[in-house]
């Protein structure tokens, strides 16, 4: 199940220079809104979204945090956008996590 470039003798997991035949990609994401988020039981919530790129060491660590929508946890609207430049898309994963500003 491994991509072909991983079988090449010059492949080194920590170095992007050994990615023979792998084309980097750019991904544009727009976080628009959410609907019917569950309340935490503490009254109103102030949600925000973390988007994080996980994968190879040289791709991992890029993170976007949307603005916080104060006291509108049921149907928040963010309209935030971000761009990710991914060197090795074969190993990349985008993680979306909706959180509440209030602990």
From TrEMBL:
<protein>
    <recommendedName>
        <fullName>C2 domain-containing protein</fullName>
    </recommendedName>
</protein>
<dbReference type="GO" id="GO:0010634">
    <property type="term" value="P:positive regulation of epithelial cell migration"/>
</dbReference>
<dbReference type="InterPro" id="IPR000008">
    <property type="entry name" value="C2_dom"/>
</dbReference>
<dbReference type="GO" id="GO:0032587">
    <property type="term" value="C:ruffle membrane"/>
</dbReference>
<dbReference type="GO" id="GO:0048015">
    <property type="term" value="P:phosphatidylinositol-mediated signaling"/>
</dbReference>
<dbReference type="InterPro" id="IPR035892">
    <property type="entry name" value="C2_domain_sf"/>
</dbReference>
<dbReference type="GO" id="GO:0046488">
    <property type="term" value="P:phosphatidylinositol metabolic process"/>
</dbReference>
<dbReference type="Pfam" id="PF00168">
    <property type="entry name" value="C2"/>
</dbReference>
<dbReference type="GO" id="GO:0004435">
    <property type="term" value="F:phosphatidylinositol-4,5-bisphosphate phospholipase C activity"/>
</dbReference>
<feature type="domain" description="C2">
    <location>
        <begin position="1"/>
        <end position="103"/>
    </location>
</feature>
<dbReference type="GO" id="GO:0051209">
    <property type="term" value="P:release of sequestered calcium ion into cytosol"/>
</dbReference>
<dbReference type="InterPro" id="IPR001192">
    <property type="entry name" value="PI-PLC_fam"/>
</dbReference>
């Amino acid at each position: 199940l491994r991509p072909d470039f991983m079988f090449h003798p010059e492949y080194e997991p920590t170095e992007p220079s050994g990615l023979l035949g792998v084309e980097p990609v750019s991904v544009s994401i727009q976080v628009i809104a959410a609907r019917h988020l569950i309340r935490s039981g503490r009254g109103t919530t102030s949600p925000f979204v973390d988007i994080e790129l996980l994968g190879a060491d040289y791709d991992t660590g890029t993170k976007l945090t949307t603005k916080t929508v104060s006291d509108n946890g049921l149907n928040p609207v963010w309209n935030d956008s971000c761009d990710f430049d991914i060197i090795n898309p074969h190993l990349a994963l985008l993680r979306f996590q909706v959180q509440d500003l209030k602990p």
